[in-house]
Write a structure and sequence with these properties.
The chain has 192 residues and is an alpha+beta fold. Helix content is 21%, strand content 39%. It has five helices and eleven strands, in the order αββββααββββαβββα. The strands form two sheets. Strands 1, 2, 3, 4, 5, 6, 7 and 8 form an eight-stranded mixed β-sheet that branches. It is globular. It starts with a helix and ends in a 7-residue tail after the last helix.
Length: 192
């Protein structure tokens, strides 16, 4: 997949006030597996008390730190710290997807998350830190299949919401990760 094709078809949305809010970024990392299958890397977050997304499926990444020149640099640093996956050495940057807004884990203040897409060309080994329980590679054909789409009941103070999700084995991909996945799946180039 050529980066130029992504750039010509992708128009990510950038939130206008993003520079005034806390910023974070994540990496959507895909690889070509056996028999021409494309797979996408997910992490399962470690179980931690007080973490509202404890044990959830996500993409590696995290908050922008003062030493990060850009959100993309934060993505590469956080991915290496969490998984040992070195995107600078073994990843090929493909595209930036649309900004999404969420909240801090422990506060109700808004935070902007920017997803970046990389093709993985490196070794299969990973080195997980305390934030990650496991890495799971999921075939894109599975993620795109209608029969794997579902709903996840999510309790809020105002009642229960039925959030869209994708199920893979015993895992459930929902929330921001699901939204990012849907934007990625709209890019026809990713599956070829």
């Amino acid at each position: 997949m050529a980066t130029e094709r992504w750039a010509s078809t992708l128009r990510p949305k950038k939130l206008p006030l993003r520079r005034h809010l806390t910023r974070a970024s994540v990496a959507l990392i895909y690889r070509q597996a056996g028999a021409g299958e494309t797979e996408l890397l997910f992490i399962q977050r470690a179980h931690r008390e007080g973490d509202p997304w404890s044990g959830d499926m996500a993409f590696p990444g995290g908050r922008l730190q003062p030493e990060d020149a850009t959100t993309r640099a934060a993505t590469e640093r956080e991915t290496l710290e969490e998984t040992g996956v070195d995107l600078i050495r073994h990843g090929r940057f493909q595209a930036r997807l649309s900004d999404l807004i969420t909240r801090h884990h422990s506060r109700w203040r808004p935070m902007v998350v920017t997803p970046y897409v990389y093709e993985w060309l490196g070794p299969q080994s990973v080195s997980l830190n305390h934030e990650v329980q496991r890495v799971v590679w999921v075939p894109l054909t599975h993620l795109a299949a209608e029969e794997n789409q579902s709903r996840l009941p999510w309790r809020t103070p105002l009642g229960t919401l039925n959030m869209p999700c994708c199920r893979f084995q015993d895992y459930c991909i929902w929330g921001l990760s699901y939204s990012m996945l849907q934007e990625l799946l709209k890019l026809d180039d990713i599956r070829h």
